Known about the structure:
Elements: H1 2-18, E1 22-25, H2 48-60, H3 67-74, E2 77-85, E3 91-95, H4 106-110, E4 116-120
Parallel strand pairs: 1-2
Antiparallel strand pairs: 2-3, 3-4
Helix pairs in contact: 2-3
Amino acid sequence: MKKFMTAALAVLLCGTALARPTYVFQPDWDAEINNDVNNPATGKPYTQTQVQTFLENVKNRGADESKAAQVLRACGQVQIKKGCHQASEPHITIWVDGRVKSNQVKACQKVDPDSAVHVNGCDAR
Length: 125
């Protein structure tokens, strides 16, 4: 029984680590000025689901070593400050609050929380 409990705990912990991060959409993330680039598939501004899908795709790109990808892999909570904006260089602005307990792990601290990060592109397809 003890081996089973240990294995179950290991699976649970691995699942939790793979699920990182939790996304928190800040008020006005989707205000017209903060989310003014339309999704090419819909012709409308990006939705929460589309932004989250895009961020998950960035996180899961194995070869992507951009700061944004590192933050998405390492930190427990990521705040979405702005949706897809700035048509000349479309990006989503995220921020990690280093005071949040799930962000107080070495891997997250290593990628410099408490700073805004641009996640380039926006295509959630």
